[in-house]
Amino acid sequence: MSDNERVILLVEDNADDEALTLGALKKNNIRNEVVVARDGSEAPDYLFGSSAHAGSDLRVMPQIILLDLRLPKVDGFEVLNRVRSNDATRLLPVVILNEEQDCIRGYDLGANSFVRKPVEFDKFIEAVRQLGLYWLILNEPPPALRRS
After folding, report:
1. Using CA of residue 131, residue 136, residue 142, residue 145, what is the dihedral sign?
2. Nearest CA to 11 among 55, 73, 102, 58?
3. What CATH number is given to the structural domain containing 90?
């Protein structure tokens, strides 16, 4: 599978954090396509092919979901709950990018990893480098789940 087929779903409503994440991915030579969902209802729409994403190829799932928790419309915990409760998405790796106080609840709902958003740009770049190395290169994802 090429990098172009390994889509990253970034669920982030803050334009500055989105730019920071995209910049950190680029600086670390992570060239995967990044789909950005800017609120908590857009992410499930993308994953399940509804609303603006109706008719999309549901066999192509993201390699990883980078999920902010503080989102408009539907919060990130509910997004995570929807991902984990659907057979087609329940095994997708989900990494939460947020404050430490949300860590336990995120793991309870099935997050695979939790990364505290560093305030310093250099630390964030390093965190993204390590995320990319592990989740996009080293981690062996489960076999693709097909919808019937």
Report:
1. positive
2. 73
3. 3.40.50.2300
pLDDT tens track for 40-92: 999 999 999 877 766 677 677 899 999 999 999 999 999 999 999 999 899 99
Q: Are 83 and 89 in contact (CB under 8 A)?
A: yes
DSSP state letters, the chain? --GGGS-EEEE---HHHHHHHHHHHHHTT----EEEE-STTHHHHHHHT-GGGTT--TT---SEEEE-S--SSS-HHHHHHHHHTSTTTTTS-EEEEE-GGGHHHHHHTT-SEEEE--SSHHHHHHHHHHHIIIIIII--PPPPPPP-
Q: How many residues does the chain have?
A: 148
- Characterize the bridge pairing of strands 64-67 and 94-98: parallel
Global pTM? 0.85
Q: Which domain holds residue 69?
A: 3-137
CB 76 within 8 A of CB 69: yes
Classify residue 143: in a domain, yes or no: no
What is the C-alpha separation between 109 and 46, in angstroms, rounded? 20
Could you tell me which residues come within 8 angstroms of residue 137 by beta carbon, excluding any fewer than 6 positions away? none
